[in-house]
Amino acid sequence: MDPHAPFLLRLSTVEEGESHREMVGSPEELAFQGDGFEPEGPISFRARIYRIGDRMEIRGPVRTKVRQTCGRCLEPVVSEVEAEVRVFAEPPDSRDPREREEVREDDLGIVYHDGQSVDLTDEVRQVLLVEVPWHPTCREDCRGLCPRCGANRNGDGCACTEDPVDPRWRALLDLREKAEE
Ligand SMILES: [Zn+2]
Ligand SMILES: [Zn+2]
């Protein structure tokens, strides 16, 4: 097998009926770059394959870990990401072109193979991208950064006043202070 194409399935190695396969690739091999996160370690795909002649259904969980930045305190956050791949692989000439266009629109997850191999790299990549957290936080109750001095409020905090007075109340307090003078 091509070591640089871990998600390439050679048809000659897939038996008729049901079979299982574990495919493992590195972040570099999936070309995850500039997506707002870094994968931590390998990407694994436990595929269950049903083959009838030159058609196959390939499905199973894809797992990896990604490193992102907490949206509140900017500390690194590592999350487990799991997604489900489900695709049908078939030769390109098994449908007429018009029908193929409709299938694409319906997003049924069809990949075409050349009779030699099926490349699942794009499928694995796409399902993971959907599952990567959009607004990662290091923990549910992350207190974020102090708006005054920028210190991380999850740790020792800072010397700034705990709850700065809301400006809308400030006006009211000023009035009261005036009245008391
Ligand atoms: Zn945080
Ligand atoms: Zn502060």
Automatic annotation (TrEMBL):
Pfam families: YceD. It comes from the Bacteria. InterPro entries: YceD. This is DUF177 domain-containing protein. It comes from Eiseniibacteriota bacterium.
